[in-house]
Known about the structure:
This protein is of the alpha/beta class.
Amino acid sequence: MRSTKSLAVVAVFGLLGLAGCGGGGSTDADAAAEAEVAVSDDPCTKANLPVMEAGFLTIGTDSPAYEPWFKNDDPVNGQGFESAVAYTVADRLGFNSDEVKWVVASFNSLITPGEKPFDFAINQVSITDERKDAVDFSPGYYDVNQALITIAGSPIEGATTIAELQGAKLGAAVGTTSYDTIVEVIAPTTEPAVFDNNDVAKQALANGQIDGLVVDLPTAFYITAAELDDGVIVGQFPTEQVTEQFGLVLDKGSALTECVSAVVEDLRADGTLDGVQQQWLADVAGAPVLLREGEEAETGLLLDLEE
């Protein structure tokens, strides 16, 4: 699908160009009228988008809204990577910042079947085949790795291989690919702990209830730098054959999916998402990669957003 507004723009200029040729006695007024009809026929123009509330775009995210994805637990301010992405998508769809409304939607409610209270949601939701059975996703707006954090002096500080983690007590937020990473990649001998959200999880880590917490890499950097005393990143997990990506979440079969997806594709293709990422996630440098059995450490870092 062409980007939002692009079909309309092509139609407008095409019709005006025909008017300029002067054939058939058509006037500028005729051309303008035809162009207006062409614009009104584009399903991705603001006026034609089947949004929940006419004239407004309703976006969902969880509460609290964590950094570095949002600043000061306030999605409305446009600060933080995901808040900035949301407003950039809204702008491409034709909505000004004062025409964006935010609603609270828990992470679990985003990925389960059922009618949603938003037009789309943004909340570090990884695109998976299983989740696609319940909801629609846009193309990925951010490529992400999972990482393991701990407290200085813990039994797993300094671990360099996944095998060294198998005897540890690990935890992650419920319903996340972070939890899936523990179960499927680490396969620990002790049942992993499951938490309602990362706030509860990091408190459990600070209290010594778990040895390590798995979160996405940017969150790992923020928690260890700003929210935990003596927080340490043990390492990030190797990417599999398919890179994990965050996507915007929409109702299953939403009439908005095609238009929102086209916007995300355009933002990725024209470098806009890279610019937003550099603005809000530039401090996320590489972390050592936790090795599988038989692997050797590579020189350099797996992920370095400053390159």
